[in-house]
């Protein structure tokens, strides 16, 4: 099969999802729509997770910065936890969020993402090496 030089359109993505839900195999869909099996698998997986809305192209500028794709309420909660407890690190903040029933439905960021967010917000301090007292 010749390589496509243009991305799949929204209509092609919807067709992939509809054909996959009717039970057609990925190679059959790829042959019918003249695209790769990997594209079929990718858009079928995205369609299963997010539905038809997930197949639409993203509109606007992509989120930037640490935790840019996380809900703003969650970012605010992380910021508030750190301001309330300045000694807490990323692990402790994540542990606190996991115990809070408000955030059980939301996917939580990784420890590294929380640490990058804290650094971006200038809520970290330099590590002071231990020295013996005189």
Task: Show the helix and strand layout.
Elements lengths: L9 H12 L4 H8 L3 H14 L21 H13 L5 H10 L11 H10 L14
Helix pairs in contact: 1-2, 1-3, 2-3, 5-6
Tell me about this structure.
With 134 residues, this protein is mostly helical. It has 2 domains: 10-55; 62-134, no CATH class. The chain has helices at residues 10-21, 26-33, 37-50, 72-84, 90-99, 111-120.
Low-confidence stretches: none
* Count of discrete structural domains: 2
What is the N-to-C order of secondary-structure elements (H for helix, E for strand)? Answer: HHHHHH
Distance between the termini: 76 Å
Helix segment count?
A: 6
Number of strands: 0
Give the rounded overall mean pLDDT.
89
Strand-pairing-aware structural class? mainly alpha
Kindly estimate the percentage of residues that lie in beta strands according to DSSP.
Answer: under 5%
Q: Cα-atom Rg, whole angstroms?
A: 22 Å
What oligomeric state do the depicted chains represent? single chain
Largest sheet: none
Helix content: 40-55%
Give a brief description.
The chain is mainly α.
Features:
single chain; 134 residues; mainly alpha; 2 domains; 50% helix
């Amino acid at each position: 099969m010749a390589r496509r030089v243009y991305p799949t359109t929204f209509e092609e993505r919807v067709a992939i999802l509809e054909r996959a839900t009717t039970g057609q195999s990925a190679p059959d869909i790829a042959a019918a729509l003249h695209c790769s099996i990997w594209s079929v698998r990718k858009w079928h997986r995205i369609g299963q997770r997010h539905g038809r809305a997930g197949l639409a192209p993203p509109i606007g500028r992509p989120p930037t910065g640490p935790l840019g794709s996380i809900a703003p309420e969650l970012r605010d909660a992380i910021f508030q936890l750190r301001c309330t407890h300045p000694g807490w690190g990323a692990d402790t903040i994540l542990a606190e969020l996991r115990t809070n029933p408000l955030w059980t439905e939301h996917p939580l960021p990784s420890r590294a993402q929380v640490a990058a967010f804290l650094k971006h917000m200038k809520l970290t301090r330099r590590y002071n090496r231990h020295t013996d007292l005189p």
